[in-house]
Write a structure and sequence with these properties.
Layout lengths: L6 E6 L4 H12 L5 E4 L4 H11 L6 E6 L2 E5 L4 H9 L7
Parallel strand pairs: 1-2
Antiparallel strand pairs: 1-3, 3-4
């Protein structure tokens, strides 16, 4: 068991092709993730707008201990790098 495993949060909506690609990528890597479904819930899109200035999905947040890096586009190569990067040393 690894204490450095990253937490992944995926903001998505049903029927989104790119969201499905990200889910398949994470599942194929056995990477657990929390899925936040924004379909029919404009409040969640408001949250994305407040955090990142966008209302579209997918948004992928990777991190832990309250520090997350967000991917605002479905870039699977960058996601793979984020998942394999060691956690930054605590100060």
């Amino acid at each position: 068991m690894s204490s450095t495993s990253k937490k992944v949060v995926l903001w998505s909506k049903t029927g989104c092709h790119f969201c499905g690609e990200v889910k398949a990528f994470l599942t194929a890597r056995n990477q657990p993730f929390e899925n936040i479904e924004v379909q029919g819930n404009d409040v969640l899109r408001d949250v994305l707008e407040a955090k990142y200035g966008i209302r579209h999905v997918p948004v992928i947040e990777v991190g832990g201990d309250g520090k997350y890096e967000a991917l605002l586009e479905p870039d699977l190569e960058k996601l793979a790098k984020l998942l394999t990067q060691p956690d930054e040393a605590a100060v």
